[in-house]
Amino acid sequence: MNIKRVMIVGTMVVIMSFGSTALSGSITSACPALKWSFSTGNSEKDDLLEALNQSSDEELYESLYEGKSLHDIAAEQGGDINDVIDLQVSQLAKQLDDRLRSGSITPEQHAAHKAELREIVEQSVLTSFG
Predict the structure, then answer these.
(1) Which segment of the chain is annotated as a signal peptide (predicted)?
(2) How much is the CA Rg of the chain, to the nearest whole Å?
(3) Which one in 51, 75, 110, 121 has a CA-CA gap of 20 to 30 Å to 82?
(4) Residue 83: inside a domain, yes or no?
(5) How far apart are the first and last CA of the chain?
């Protein structure tokens, strides 16, 4: 799992915890102690790394491990936190759309989660995990 996926999954956990409790039955564990693997096999530059102006997953991992938030990392490296927010909102909105299509959430849940998506992502980029 690459760092971008870890951050997105973490953000989804935040979204689901603030969202309706109807999803609580499908969440079995929200353990923050994940094993991270950096071998993606993808030679393209990662959108998240680019937005944060980071050169590698390892560099981003180290910054997060030091307790910095995504906002802190972007500010220190001259990255654009608005690009990070837009990227996460876009990817999470796609995940919500996929869940709606698969039937794992109702149209009402989809609308409610999508309505609060940007606010929750904006709050999450300020959160440090250290």
Answers:
(1) 1-22
(2) 15
(3) 110
(4) yes
(5) 20
Residue range of the domain that includes 113: 1-8+48-130
For tokens 């999470």, the residue is 92
- The Cα–Cα gap between 71 and 55 comes to 16
Sequence-distant (≥ 6) Cβ neighbours of residue 15 within 8 angstroms? 92, 113, 116, 117, 120
Type and span of the H or E element at 10: helix 3-18
Q: Which two tokens stand for residue 71?
A: 């906002």
Q: Among residues 112, 117, 98, 104, which one has the least CA distance to residue 12?
A: 117
- Number of structural domains in the chain: 1
Q: Could you tell me if 92 and 8 are in contact, meaning their C-beta atoms sit under 8 angstroms apart?
A: yes
Return the structure tokens found at 103. Answer: 């039937």
- pTM passes above 0.85: no
